[in-house]
């Protein structure tokens, strides 16, 4: 069995690079190169058969190399040039499945914080205001989830565990998690919008989902509904969202993703009292790259055994 050369590019934090390297060193028939500079990355790609990366610059594919497989470190793949990878004969697998727990906890925490008025309570604490406003109970609410994949499915399980009624959309409704009380195909989104007091967006960004939650969608939702976005910023029409929040059409929003990142300093979203803003960190915890390494190890076994078609989350 031949030895594979694995490249970890420089773009990751030192701690993350080291965490991955330690896990990869446990693999048989694998040599690991940890790049610390852009030049080391470019040099390493020339000899690597495998790379672990959140993107593949065209410069990599233009160089003479033996690259066979890229293990993505994100669940999405809209930032990869799939045609270029296919033409170069390079397989791509994603990290779908690594985000379910951390993002699920973020979404549940955001909904609990909004429902129990915890964020407003923190503001009142800062101003030394004693106001006994305890909010409502999340268990009395209907949570609508757009996209019941690995992430949306975990959010459904957590929301159901605290007593929420859960509805959602999935391309194949027959594969929806048991925690979902009612599931609809993607083209019946309005059924979910009409019921969702908390609308959680957990779908990939595609031509079909870009701008999916627009003014019409927001008007379809119950008054005082809350939008929770952990998908991609462009799934939501941000101008329409700001307008709906300012007019009181929506009660609030919890946003971890935005059309432009970093979120511009002049965005109205920063100053709206009923909006929670976090800088695209809902899926980031110290355990993130441990889960990436688990997927990588599983896929490496398939590749080493001559069974690349068996690799998990293969896109190309």
Automatic annotation (TrEMBL):
It comes from the Archaea. One of its GO terms (molecular function) is oxidoreductase activity. Keywords: NAD, Oxidoreductase. Residues 109-282 form the D-isomer specific 2-hydroxyacid dehydrogenase NAD-binding domain. The keyword Endoplasmic reticulum does not apply. SUPFAM superfamilies: Formate/glycerate dehydrogenase catalytic domain-like (SSF52283), NAD(P)-binding Rossmann-fold domains (SSF51735). It comes from Halovivax cerinus. The keyword Disulfide bond does not apply. Residues 29-308 form the D-isomer specific 2-hydroxyacid dehydrogenase catalytic domain. Signal peptide: none annotated. Belongs to the D-isomer specific 2-hydroxyacid dehydrogenase family. It holds the Pfam family 2-Hacid_dh_C. This is D-2-hydroxyacid dehydrogenase.
